[in-house]
Amino acid sequence: MKENGTKKQNLGISVRELVAYALRSGDLDTTQFGTVSPTDAIAAHTIVQNVRPSGYRREIPIHHQVETDDFVLEVSGRIDGLFTQTDPAIVEEIKTTREDLATISQREDPYHWGQVKTYAYMYAREHDLDRIGVQLTYFQREHGTMKEVRRSYTAAELSIFFNDLVKAYLEWAGMVVRWREVRDASIRNLTFPFESYRAGQEQMLQEVGMIIEQQSQLLVQAPTGIGKTMAVLLPSIHAIAGKQVSQSFYLTARTTGRQAAETTLNILRSTGLKLKSLSLTAKEKICFNPDRLCHPEECAYARGHFSRVNAALKDAFMQDSFTRDTIITLAKKHRVCPFEFALDLSMWVDCVVCDYNYVFDPGVFLRRFFEGSGGEYVLLIDEAHNLVDRAREMYSAALTRLEIQRVRNAVKGHLGGVHRILGRVNAWMIEQRTRCEEARNPIAEREPPAELYTLLRDFTKAAEKWLIKNKPARFREPLLDLYFDARTFLKTFDRYDDNYATCYLNDQRDITVRLFCIDPSRYLRETLERCRSAVFFSGTMKPMHYFIESIGCDDTAATLTLPSPFPNHNLCTLVASRVSTLYKHRERTKIAVAQMIYSFVEAKKGNFLVFFPSYKYMKMIHDVIHIQRPDLTILVQDAGMSEHEREQFLARFCTSNDALLVGFAVMGGVFAESIDLIGDRLTGAVIVGVGLPGISLERELIRMYFDDVNNCGYAFAYQFPGMIRVLQAAGRVIRSETDRGAVLMIGTRFAGEPYRSLLPEDWQTRDVENGNVMREILNEFWGR
């Protein structure tokens, strides 16, 4: 107890974390090569421990409490090994490396010595020893050799060292603890920030709170206008003060989703909330020197980064909202790497706003949170309908022959061993290309390419021998890129099971070998199990059983479907089900499709979007309309549009347009999701076809896989993803309670199942036989 009678704050930290915070200094260098995977490190520990003499103890748990005026700090860890037969006893810390042992002995790693000295202090205190020995043992993985460095310290020397660590940490921890007291008090006073809830918003908010309390999962289909972002963030914030949740992760695939989260948090802050949030930006988008290596000799922000980052963290803690601009300002002020600085901040904020991959992607996920047993985290997954296909990409891997050949040419005359191995990889790739040429089609197999695995393993070993020397060379960067691509391929190969297929895709002189993850649900589930709760929400989460199975949710996952909060009579939905958009009929019906489009858009002057399932079909219809209506202004989405070009495209959809404007775009693209053209910026939308993805090798693999699993292969591969695209495109029309607009869906499939039943239940859809009937209905609708 404190002198004032209040209870002291209990804190816990591992030896590793304590030393990492208090002793970090020096340069940031992501080009350094020599780190070892946790699996390899465990194996190396076992090898070293097995050759130790009798009386040697291994893996000893140890704890030590430090009590100050304000805190009770428990430091815990596990000693790798202890020589008990020596006098004094010797504490051993084992480190696995790929580096040459002679190189290691030339420099002293303060972090390694800090760990072993901390363990020695704790053991000496526990056993009342005046003196104790320490040993750093470096195990060279490639050669199986060891280097041992011993030292001896008095208990008094170690006590001074340890107390300095604790002092440095508690100065920071004290700031964090005091902040959390302020935060929790503000949350307890936090209420809904508006006078009233939107239709469905209160129910969603309550369901989310209940799911977090029950440590479960929830899937929500909630159209635009309900206030989904507030409905998920507010209960997750209350759960932080209630000690149910330590941090929330708001996952979004698009900039608009990040902006919605930031805006909602700022609204809550304006009512008195004290909460720290971080918007995590991809490294390539926030790096100050994107054309240079992350190396102290090339980047001033990498040079001395670790010596300045703790001061940057303390300065940052005076603020609450860490947007991209805030991170950049602080990073420049303290001359630290903005991306690494943001990663450090993520440990101390209450809410992290980031892309899906920082949680789910096995290559870039935040290991500090989601490796091992996980924690009391809640995941809030925005636009969750995107997660299935995104996850397939995350858990797949690919290599191309041209990539192999470019690096082979680059190392020629420099690295003979690497050059020879890449020659064998190249020859193997050419054999696969020949197979595809003979088959006149891409090839899919349900077995992994074992021969390629062996070749890539040989390549990575040969490349490591040179990369580990960290020498500059013009070919270093492409070699490093290929090395990591090969490592990703090998790791994916190790994960290969019935959820995978191997695809061989030839393209003239090139060939791609792809380990394709057909069903990522198992791997998503593994991440979900490391979190307390997860809430998946989107305007298109129908049918729910498709998402529950595809995302890897528990059988107990709850679902919630909410109707649009906007008046039904503000949206006119029409179906031209007598016009076929089937692939085999497109040439014959292209004039009928074009007539339906301009009959629809000419019913009212305004701005319209027309969505197609493919660029090829879009061009076909555009060519027809250009001939029949040459005066019609049409903007056409290009497959290679830059961000600036996309912004220019959308800027044309303004309320001041005096003439009719029509934009042609593809379903599932950037203009079909997460754009807000409110009011007269968008008058209506035409959906051409049911949005089925094009037939491809990978889609056919999905179809056949789910035919075996649940007899729903065509639905899972084509129909459900297609209708999700349709509904996302249609959702661009009504974005506020005052919006009025019309949607026309063209295609015979819209009249049948399952397509008809996948349309929103609150849509009052009317079939139109021809353009004249449609004009009558639209004239009545617009004349209201």
Could you please describe the fold and organization of this structure?
By secondary structure, this protein is of the alpha/beta class. 44% of the residues lie in helices and 20% in strands. It has 27 helices and 25 strands. An 8-stranded parallel beta sheet has the order 10-9-11-8-12-17-7-18, sandwiched between helices. Strand 15 and strand 16 form a beta hairpin. Helix 11 packs across helix 12 and helix 25 crosses helix 26 (713-730). The protein is globular and about 100 Å long. The termini are far apart. The relative contact order is 0.08.
Structural class: alpha/beta
> Number of helix segments?
27
Radius of gyration computed on alpha carbons: 30 Å
- What are the segments in which pLDDT stays under 50 over at least 5 consecutive residues? none
Q: What's the quick description here?
A:
Helices cover 44% and strands 20% of the residues.
Key attributes of the depicted protein:
784 residues; alpha/beta; eight-stranded parallel beta sheet; seven-stranded parallel beta sheet; 27 helices; 44% helix
